[in-house]
Amino acid sequence: QALGIRNLICITGDPPRMGSYPGATAVFDVDSIGLVNIVNNLNQGLDIGGNAIGSQTTLLIGVGANPGALNLDEEVRRFEQKVKAGAEYVVTQPVFDVRLLENFLRRIEDFRLPLIAGIWPLTSYRNAEFMVNELRVPVPDTFLERMRKADSAEAARAEGVAIAREMARQVRPMVQGVQISAPFGRYELAIRVAEAIGPR
User: Fold this and answer.
1) Alpha-carbon span 42 to 20, nearest angstrom
2) Has this prediction a pTM greater than 0.85?
3) Cα–chain-centroid distance for residue 151?
């Protein structure tokens, strides 16, 4: 907080093999629920052990969720635990299927947390397959086929932006905001999506 940080998103994270250091050892001392508990304690002036620390933080606590989780019951159960631990808003994994988001929103509506939908401009057919196979983010066959048909890297990126624009337009009336990712540092793709959807 001394650095001006006001908002956190508490997530368990991806296994190291998905990042820049595939040989790194994964250490998960706490999961996202435990991390929310820790930050919530800090906001109440308590350390990890529940001891008073003399002052308190004022951090806004966000969490992640996957509306397309294979086991949605478990996803909702964990979401409820995150809320009980102190979560104040949620950011979803990338959304490519509006029906899955609608179903998830129905399941969590009683919690009344602001939801920000993740929007990801796909960059290639391989990127779309990675979403499905590694990140367990459902991508409809129609979108996979559109990405597969792209006959160049530039065409694939353009198709990915078009899909992201469609998704952003569809989900905006249902959620409190969208988070447009810049895949692999390609900020221009995120900008192209944002320009198409305009201000709220």
Assistant:
1) 31
2) yes
3) 29
Among 35, 78, 28, smallest CA distance to 59 is for 35
Query: Which residue in 133, 135, 109 sits closest to 120, CA to CA?
Result: 135
Question: pLDDT tens track of the chain, all 200 residues?
Answer: 778 999 999 998 766 665 666 677 777 788 999 999 999 999 999 998 889 999 999 999 999 999 999 999 999 999 999 999 999 999 999 999 999 999 999 999 999 999 999 999 999 999 999 999 988 999 999 999 999 999 999 999 999 999 999 999 999 999 999 999 999 999 999 999 999 877 76
Sequence spans of domains, the chain: 7-197
The CATH code belonging to domain 7-197 is 3.20.20.220
Contact in structure between 137 and 143 (CB atoms under 8 Å): no
